[in-house]
């Protein structure tokens, strides 16, 4: 089995960010699910990943993975916090959601039986790993 090239790793990171961005737009705009506070923060990281990684591929900038790692770490931290809320590890008294908005922890956080925070955490992790792998080639 051959090694993953830097450009291929960057392309996989970008595809993951693009699919995740389109998925949350579908969930919000087509399925009509209003995002909670933490979902908005995660979107802010994911949408920018799509643009920055895409431009890095377009311009063949092998060092753009640095920004992919930074944004994936930020988004992953929010997704991890969200997952902690969802599974009940974070106390209710510090939940960011209000009674008037969508909840960060209810059943609306499921798509096909999978929690949205888990999908986001998985996406950010994959993007971070692929971004890091894309840098290995530029450091030689």
TrEMBL record:
Gene3D superfamilies linked: DsbB-like
Protein's recorded name: Disulfide bond formation protein DsbB
Top-level taxon of the source organism: Bacteria
Native species: Sulfitobacter mediterraneus
Membrane topology: Multi-pass membrane protein
Keyword Transmembrane helix carried by entry: yes
Residue stretches spanning the membrane: 42-60, 67-90, 110-135
Locations listed in the record: Membrane
Alphabetically ordered keywords of this record: Chaperone, Disulfide bond, Electron transport, Membrane, Oxidoreductase, Redox-active center, Transmembrane, Transmembrane helix, Transport
InterPro entries: DiS_bond_form_DsbB/BdbC, Disulphide_bond_form_BdbC, DsbB-like_sf
Similarity field: Belongs to the DsbB family. BdbC subfamily.
Single GO biological process annotation from the record: protein folding
Statement: the UniProt record of this protein carries the keyword Electron transport: yes
Annotated Gene Ontology cellular component terms: membrane
GO molecular function: protein-disulfide reductase activity
């Amino acid at each position: 089995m051959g090694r993953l090239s830097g450009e291929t790793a960057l392309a996989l990171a970008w595809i993951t960010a693009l699919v995740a961005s389109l998925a949350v737009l579908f969930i919000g705009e087509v399925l009509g699910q209003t995002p909670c506070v933490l979902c908005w923060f995660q979107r802010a990281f994911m949408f920018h990943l799509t643009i920055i990684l895409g431009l890095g591929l377009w311009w063949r900038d092998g060092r753009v993975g640095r920004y992919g790692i930074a944004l994936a770490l930020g988004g992953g931290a929010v997704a991890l916090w969200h997952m902690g809320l969802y599974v009940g590890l974070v106390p209710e008294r510090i939940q960011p959601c209000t009674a008037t908005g969508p909840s960060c922890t209810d059943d609306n956080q499921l798509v096909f039986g999978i929690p949205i925070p888990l999908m986001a955490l998985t996406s950010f992790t994959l993007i971070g790993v692929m971004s890091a792998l894309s840098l290995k080639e530029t450091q030689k």
